[in-house]
Amino acid sequence: MEDISVADFVREHFGEEFLTYFVQPFVSGIYAGDAERLSLRYAFPKLWEIQRRYGSLLKAFIREKRVAPKGELISFEGGLKTLVDLLAEKIPNKELNTSAEVIEKEEDRYRVLTDRGTFVGKRVIITTPAGETAKLLRKVFPPAEAFKEIHYPPVAVVSLAFPKIGLDGFGFLVPKVEGLKILGAIYVSSLFPDRCPADEDCLSVFLCGDTQKEVCHQSEEEILKTAVGEIRKVFPQIGGIKFQKLKLWKKSIPQYTVGYGGFYELYEELKRREPNLEILSNFLGGSSLAKCIEKGMRLTIGV
Fold it and tell me: What is the band of 112 on the pLDDT scale with cuts at 50, 70, 90?
């Protein structure tokens, strides 16, 4: 089965309306991406494999009883920072706030040059984004320059709190044709009650992504204003805003676009040439937190 876009696959099997009102909002929610550009094979590998194996989603459903992957929303009482803090505690020797510049090789050892000196080791594990990975590998593996071509769209997340209006459930996604300048929102007070005062509702509003990049071309003040204004269109009963905070990622989630297989081929060539250099970044093998944890656990077996 060829490498096709998510949009082309959905049009063929379910039609344009299903793409517009269900799949594109879903893709925006997961990848902040554009279904016209994302690869079915690399962005949704399980779905691609099922289609390749059975040739029909209906046959797959009959055989396997389900097509969609299992999953659930998880977090920690103190937020995902809890996981990072715990990992930091478990690593005895570490250098924080250190900028790695380049990796060099000297016989069977690697030298990592940083702004705090040089670190030498027999094995190096890289977890940086694609552009930074290309920079680090420019001497030991020049073809890694191609990783700079991996696209990361901007994403803004606006956290809001206001007097309780009774938000319940997970949240919502917005089809672009509805005309709102947001991708969707998550009801934080419903999902994680400990993160919001009892007399308030809290939500996180997501903006920009590949389908609405222009929103992130605004100033931070304008992005905040956009988020509040669009949420009021959805919930006109909202009173005064008691809390608002913006987090802007100019480069958010790596986009597994059609043709992404070339980057996997590059990675395989790196492993052949430099078996003691490993990339565990989220631009290879899945971008979700669960996938990153899974890749890390697999690697620890061989370390």
Answer: very high
Over the stretch 48-85, which tens digit does the pLDDT of each residue have? 888 888 777 667 666 665 555 566 677 788 888 898 89
Residue predicted with more confidence, 299 or 273: 273
The residues, any chain, with a CB within 8 Å of residue 65's CB and separated by 6 or more, are none
Nearest to 103 by CA among 136, 133, 142: 136
State the first-to-last Cα distance of the chain, in angstroms, to the nearest integer: 36
Token reading at 64 = 């396997």
- Mean pLDDT, range 191-210, rounded to an integer: 95
Task: Please provide the size of the chain in residues.
Answer: 303
Write the CB contacts of 191 (distance below 8 Å, at least 6 apart in sequence). Answer: 73, 170, 171
Q: What share of the chain is helix, strand, coil (3-state, %, to 5)?
A: 45, 20, 35
Q: CA–CA separation, 192 vs 171, rounded Å? A: 12
All domains in the chain, ordered by first residue: 6-64 (1.10.3110.10), 98-149+256-302 (3.50.50.60), 155-249 (3.90.660.20)
Residues ≥6 apart with Cβ < 8 Å to 229 = none
Instruction: For the chain, give the longest Cα–Cα distance.
Output: 68
Whether 235 has a pLDDT exceeding 90, the answer reads yes
Per-residue confidence (pLDDT) for residue 61, from 0 to 100 = 66
The C-alpha atoms of residue 56 and residue 217 are separated, in whole angstroms, by 42
Q: What's the DSSP call for residue 288? A: S
- pLDDT over 90 percentage in the chain: 77
Nearest C-alpha neighbor of 173 from the set 2, 289, 1, 28? 28
**Cα-based angle 101, 105, 107 (whole degrees, multiple of 5):** 160
